[in-house]
């Protein structure tokens, strides 16, 4: 009997050990499944973040192009204003000589008037 009870006891112990391992394996599998779900949700969130980033980058690219075009327009306007100011400066310079000439003519006529009429 001793010989027969030992294998029977060993079988029972093995069954008990296997039964104890089943809940451990189930909890391990559940934790792995949860970890995979977390990884999947994180990857999904990253995908949406990258989509938003791509949208922002394309919008910023459009804004940069508009800024560049506005800078070109501004440069053209500044150059035009500089040309207009140079024309005005030349006009003022020539007007000064005209004013000086008129002033001398008036003084000349005033001197003639004072010497000959008065």
UniProtKB/TrEMBL annotation:
What is the organism of origin for this protein?
Answer: Ilex paraguariensis
- Give the T-SNARE coiled-coil homology domain ranges: 26-88
What's the protein's topology in the membrane? Single-pass type IV membrane protein
Record keywords, A-Z = Coiled coil, Membrane, Protein transport, Transmembrane, Transmembrane helix, Transport
- Asked whether the keyword Kinase is assigned, the reply is no
Under what name is this protein listed? t-SNARE coiled-coil homology domain-containing protein
What GO cellular component is one of the record's annotations?
Answer: membrane
Family named by the database record: Belongs to the syntaxin family.
**Major localization listed first in the record, in broad terms:** membrane
Family annotation (CDD domains): SNARE_syntaxin5
Source domain of life is: Eukaryota
Query: A Pfam family for this UniProt protein?
Result: SNARE
Q: Which SMART domains match?
A: t_SNARE
Query: Where is region (Disordered) located?
Result: 1-25
Q: Which GO terms describe its biological process?
A: protein transport; vesicle-mediated transport
State which residue ranges cross the membrane.
97-117
* Regions of compositional bias (Low complexity) in chain numbering: 10-20
Cellular localization per UniProt: Membrane
């Amino acid at each position: 009997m001793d010989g027969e009870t030992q294998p029977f006891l060993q079988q029972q112990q093995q069954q008990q050990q296997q039964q104890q391992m089943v809940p451990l394996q189930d909890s391990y599998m559940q934790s792995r499944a949860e970890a995979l779900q977390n990884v999947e949700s994180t990857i999904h969130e990253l995908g949406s973040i990258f989509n938003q980033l791509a949208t922002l980058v394309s919008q910023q690219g459009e804004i940069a192009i508009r800024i560049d075009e506005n800078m070109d327009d501004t440069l053209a306007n500044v150059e035009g204003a500089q040309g207009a100011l140079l024309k005005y400066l030349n006009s003022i310079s020539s007007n000064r000589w005209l004013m000086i000439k008129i002033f001398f003519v008036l003084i000349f006529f005033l001197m003639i008037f004072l010497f000959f009429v008065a």
